Amino acid sequence: MKIQSKQIDNLCFIATNDSGHGVVMEGQPPEGHAKRGANPMELVLMAAAGCSSIDVVSISQKQQQKVRDCQTTVTAERAETEPAVFTKIHIHFTVYGQDLKESAIEQAINLSAEKYCSVAIMLGKTAKVTHSFEVINEA
């Protein structure tokens, strides 16, 4: 895996992977300037949301669950002193579909948290990572 980061200007950068996919990231922009990208710590939480969501949907599909949508909200707290690492991270899943079994969704979340989501497991080495979920069965 290889990522390259290139300065656009001031504290704004674009990072790209070997496939050419990129993401804009930015520190605090100068006064009066709009922010053009997420900051690096926000990107870490986005990665945790993406990684765990992919796992939950993939595992649920293998369990024959009819997932239509999975929305994930990640909240976090950081240390008050530098380095301001994450100390608490909470990942909440809202899973929509038909005839979903709460036990199957819960199992998918647990497997992601304990075995498959490399991002959340890595973050768990320095922060307390918790999970919650709700299942919305649609007609």
From TrEMBL:
UniProt-listed Pfam families: OsmC (PF02566)
Gene3D superfamilies the UniProt entry points to: 2.20.25.10, 3.30.300.20
InterPro entries: KH_dom-like_a/b (IPR015946), OsmC/Ohr_fam (IPR003718), OsmC/Ohrsf (IPR036102)
PANTHER family (alphabetical): PROTEIN YHFA (PTHR34352:SF1)
Name of the protein this chain belongs to: OsmC-like protein
Protein source organism: Dichelobacter nodosus (strain VCS1703A)
Taxonomic lineage of the native organism: Bacteria, Pseudomonadati, Pseudomonadota, Gammaproteobacteria, Cardiobacteriales
